[in-house]
C-alpha cells in the first residue's frame, strides 16, 4: 500500500475518532465558584470611591460609596470606619464589595471630610487592609 494511502486512512481515523468525543458540559463548580473567584483580587484594597478622593463641591447630603477589591466581612465593618472632622452618624452597610454610607444629617458646608478605613477591615477571604486607608472630599 502506498504511503500517501496510509496517511489518508490514518487521518480519516483520527478525525472520525475526534467527532465521537462528547461535548463538555459546564459543571456546578464552574457555575458557582468561577464568578466569585474572577470578581476578586489577590489583595484587599479600595478600588474606587464616590465621591472620589479630592472631590470638591460635594452635596451636603451625599451617599458615600466605597468599592473594595474583595467582598467585605460585614462583621468587621462597624468598628473599622471613621470620619473626621466628626460626621453626623453614618448609617449604611455593605453588600459584596460595596460599602454604602449615608450621614444622618447634612454635612457642614465648605468642610473637607476624611473617611478612613482601619487596617483591620477584613475581606471574606480573611485578608485585611494592613494599613489605614483614607480618602477626602470637600462639601459645597
UniProtKB/TrEMBL annotation:
Keywords: Signal. Residues 43-139 form the SbsA Ig-like domain. InterPro entries: SbsA_Ig. Pfam families: Big_5. This is Ig-like protein.
